[in-house]
Write a structure and sequence with these properties.
- With 117 residues, this protein is an alpha/beta fold.
- The protein has one domain (2-116): 3-Layer(aba) Sandwich (Rossmann fold).
- 40% of the residues lie in helices and 15% in strands.
- A 3-stranded parallel sheet has the order 3-4-5. A two-stranded parallel sheet has the order 1-2.
- The longest helix is centred in the first third of the chain and has 11 residues, at 19-29.
- The relative contact order is 0.16.
């Protein structure tokens, strides 16, 4: 599904974490080539829910917030970062307990994304 999405959209990763660890995980999963940019909190100095981490990714992709969508699995952290950055948020619902408000846009699989986009 990421390959199909990558044919139509520019893809990036934004993650709170140690740069070397997150990049090695992507490399091990063989997903790294599917993403144009990888932004880590360690690498840019901001951590979600600070919206600046998303702005770093948008700048790297050359995309404005209104032409982006942020998909994340934590409505409290990812959703707040997206809201503060002015980016529509899609919650990847993995069945975990949710703190706060459940987002309106919700998917349980990446296969559902094209219908939302």
């Amino acid at each position: 599904m990421l390959r199909a999405l990558g044919e139509r959209y520019r893809l990036g990763v934004v993650t709170n974490g140690i740069d070397r660890v997150q990049r090695s995980r992507l490399a091990a999963s063989r997903l790294a080539p599917l993403f144009e940019t990888v932004v880590t909190s360690q690498g840019c100095g901001f951590a979600k829910p600070d919206p600046r981490i998303l702005h770093v990714a948008l700048d790297a992709l050359g995309v404005s917030p209104r032409h982006a969508v942020y998909v994340g699995d934590d409505p409290a952290v990812d959703g707040e970062a997206a809201r503060a950055a002015g980016i529509p948020f899609v919650w990847m619902d993995r069945g975990d307990a949710v703190r706060g408000v459940r987002p309106r846009r919700r998917v349980q699989s990446l296969r559902e994304l094209p219908d939302l986009l």
